[in-house]
Amino acid sequence: MQIGDANSMGRTSHIQVLSPEVINKIAAGEVIERPASVIKELLENSVDALSSRIDLDIEEGGTELIRIADDGEGIPADELPLAVTSHATSKLRQADDLFCVQTMGFRGEALASIAEVSHFKIRSRVHEENVGAEMAVICGDRSEIRPTGCAPGTQIEIRQLFCNTPVRRKFLKKSATEFGYISEQFTRVALASPRLQLSLTHNGKNVYRLPANQELKERLILFHGSQTVDKLIPVEAEHNGIRLWGYVGHPSLNKSTRKSQYLFLNGRYIQDRSLQHALGEAYRGLLMTGRFPVAFLFLEMPSDQVDVNVHPTKSEVRFRDQQFLFRLLLSTLRTKFLQSDLQSQLNIRPAGAPAAPDLRSRQQKVEQDLVSWARNQLEHQVQRQPAPTETPTNPLIEPLSAHSGVVTETPTTPATDERPLEQAAEILAEATGGQPGLPTTVPESQEAIATPTSTATQLPPISSIQALQVDDCYIVLSTDQGLTVIDQHALHERVLYERFRKKVLDGKVEVQKLLMPVTMDMDEKKMSLLLDHADLLREIGFSVESFGRGMLAVDSHPVFLGHNDIRDVMTEFAEKFEDSSTVGRRELLDETLHMMACKAAIKAGQRLTADEIVALLAQREMIDDAHHCPHGRPTALVLSREDLDRQFGRLGA
User: Fold this and answer.
1) Which residues contact 442 (CB under 8 A, 6 or more apart)?
2) Quick check: pTM over 0.70?
């Protein structure tokens, strides 16, 4: 249809100026995404008001109540209506001011947008006045200004957020999750402004009370723990009026996401892909693929060197010389790493709490039974062994069984002796505290592995397997296809993943109840994420609950996980759940099982016994995909006899 046709038919709509109410609701859709967005704007306003103390009170993750009080400059009574008017601000005077913004906020949209979608009340008093003023705004409808008694500064109370935008309110997450986002915004301001006295309360419970004039390290310990701070490396550089300082993590301190990378520009939290890329390049070769460094970095530079007027949330900025900052960060970190000792330390885990008397006596009995069984088996084997024959020997060649890590299986004993072998493997794992989840049982008959369920290279009979463990990491054995080199960690990880996945899907997870819950310090956001996913954790065998302020308690764990550090596992879970907004429940469960299998599997550098090697190889024939670990790495590489002959020049022989 041509434009003229539309005119001839009569116009159905006309260009018109939108009402302030509609404008504010549109702005609210850009600026106010969730309660945490409100917290961010309110905290930034309090910082700009030169406050020395900020108190934040939250109820139901911010959906029912957000109250913030500061001791800043305050707002005169006659300016309260302007405070909730769109594009009214005290931080800009002319257009050129946009190119040298020195305050956290400057748009003049936040309070107007918030007041349009909530029950809003503001009280304020300047320090020169004896009486303050109060004004209420109900979904954009303002009340009269009235005098009120209040302390110097400003107090804002927001109730029923998104009460007149039900679609936005419907898509908010559970209160624990929303409070996790709020806690993250609070953390960013607290780290950027150690001079501030801050407090955060949720549902009447004190979450954080931070004194003023703290050192940055003190606040890092509070939010991220001393174990993290102990592995931080200080960095500092200054060039052309630009200062870079802060802390970066030792390579052994790494995460599965970038959530622990904090970048601040003149006190403002920012996200910048170029700087994140420079950070990743500095750690190239020091971290495994898929792992990200921890960093708390601060940039201080003239305000005319950066444009913060890029996005309504002000988290994205544009630098005048992006390449210079990239090189500055990269060269600073690489120089620091060259001067630092980056060797990872081996952490020996404590043996754990002493066993209860009844458990200790049971363990002693198990050990005695094992010794008795082993002695009987040895005597029985010696009696059945045929007399050795006279064969010429080379003094430079030791018997195969004498080499460390070599498996030389003797002929299988009668069926009556096969069950004790399986029991002994189980007893050995229990009595010696062996690797949890390690397959230590051998199939009871040859037929158990004669029909493999996967396409893996079929092993020789168990009785004739000869395998060599190389560097306590790889298992080398001869098969029909040639020489096979197996990554023991990758293979065991696949075995455990498929085993545990089947148990979870069948609802048959064995759970170990703990006599004493494992408690751990955890920041509010991570703890909220774990509690929000308590049902998923219970499905895989974990029972978690809040244990007071900043404490999480784990009452049970899957037997499959063994004695792995539950604290590390919970931290990994929280990091996984943090990115679960775009991942379905099934995918999230699968990723969780990947991580648990990796934690419980035998590690590179772990010496295996002969029975353990044989049992692990037997399990290889019973899984669906023996070629790859859950992360896609190959579990085995094959060097054919033809390749060997070619390398040794034997093809013409």
Assistant:
1) 418, 421, 422, 425, 462, 611, 614, 615, 618
2) no
